[in-house]
Amino acid sequence: LTDMGTSEKLNSLKAVLKSDTEPRLETLALFLEHVAIPLSLSVDVVRAFADNLPGKEQNLRHSSSLSAILNIATDICRDKEETDGILQCCCTFMESWLLDVCLRDSESIDILQDDLLILICDLASGQPLRIDKHTGVK
Asked: How far apart are CA 111 and CA 108, in angstroms?
């Protein structure tokens, strides 16, 4: 571990683990816990949600992740007569994702996308959430 190359590789792996792998696993676990299992969703729906999350080249703590959450909620509610239970599950998931993945600790907040942090502050102050199909969440 005293070798500088090894130390740099370990730091790089830690950064990837903290910015992508850990939040991705937590996001999927929260989705399963709060949405997929309670609503008995198919594996295809879970896979579609996972595929719509930002890729590894983009930070998962990003507004496009929030867009993916809102889009899956819309997709699940489509063609359903009763949506209250579905929306409650999705809202609980979104709240848990914001608190447990995005705002968990100072390290998580440090790598949070600036636009998402502003959006979270706007939501906390009671500002409405707007969704645009072309530009995403505002």
From this structure: 6
Distance of alpha carbon 136 from alpha carbon 138, whole angstroms: 7
Encoded tokens for 96: 């848990």
Which residues make Cβ contacts (< 8 Å) with residue 121, sequence separation at least 6? none
Distance in Å from the first CA to the final CA of the chain: 45
**Sequence-ordered list of residues with C-beta below 8 angstroms from that of 42, at least 6 positions apart, any chain:** none
Q: How far apart are CA 116 and CA 54, in angstroms?
A: 14
Name all contacts of 19-24 with Cβ < 8 Å and 24+ positions apart: 19/59, 19/60, 19/61, 19/111, 20/56, 20/59, 20/60, 23/60, 23/61, 23/101, 23/108, 24/53, 24/60
Give the pLDDT of residue 43.
96
Averaged pLDDT in 10-residue chunks for the chain of 138 residues: 68 79 94 96 95 87 90 88 89 95 92 90 86 62
